[in-house]
Write a structure and sequence with these properties.
The protein is mainly alpha-helical. The chain is built from eight helices and no strands.
């Protein structure tokens, strides 16, 4: 009788678990896009999205309330990172304009500026992927720059995710919004891979 009353815990199939993570990535992309509407809030939004995906993968409870709490906490120093990102973009835009104007050495300066901007964006995403409440953005960015340089394969995977977002937005603009969550998931996976090496 006792054996009949024992209930087996149902395991989620591998397909259901992976599809659930994929669906959560798409939803997280929408949350990241909405939270990034403040122009300088994109690092905090990405950090909150990455935190949400880490909780989902660890099978911890979490939803929009936890995302919002993480976003508010990450925004404390994250808005300065967002402002610095826009300043870097403006500097690279000026470099590219100098290259197009035909100034001596302009093409080299433009190419170096674009590569530096790409490396800074990857380091920013890697820093946001490891953010936790109470973490200092400066320390996260310094460590992320080291990981970006020491782990070129992981950095290339993040660049590939960004390329997917850009191409998705170019082909079907609304698709770029949910795919942002896939980039956050890629950054989380790259950081987890680096940590377990």
């Amino acid at each position: 009788m006792a054996q009949q009353m024992r209930v087996k815990a149902r395991k989620e199939s591998v397909f259901n678990e992976r599809f659930g993570v994929f669906a959560e990535c798409l939803l997280t992309g929408v949350w990241i896009a909405v939270a990034s509407l403040g122009v300088v809030t994109y690092p905090a939004a990405f950090a909150a999205g990455a935190g949400h995906l880490r909780r989902r993968i660890a099978h911890e409870a979490g939803g929009i309330k936890e995302f919002a709490a993480d976003f508010r906490a990450a925004l404390r120093g994250g808005w300065l990172v967002g402002l610095a990102g826009w300043a870097a973009l403006a500097a690279v835009w000026l470099d590219v304009q100098a290259a197009r104007a035909g100034l001596p050495g302009g093409p080299l300066v433009g190419a170096v500026g674009l590569l530096a901007l790409l490396a800074a964006a990857v380091a920013g995403m890697r820093a946001a992927a490891t953010w936790t409440p109470g973490a200092a953005w400066r320390a996260l960015l310094a460590a992320a720059v080291r990981r970006t340089l020491l782990d070129p394969a992981g950095s290339f995977l993040i660049v590939g995710g960004v390329v997917v977002v850009v191409l998705s937005g170019w082909l079907i603009a609304p698709l770029a919004v949910p795919v942002l969550g896939a980039v956050a998931a890629a950054a989380v996976a790259v950081e987890e891979r680096y940590r377990n090496r």
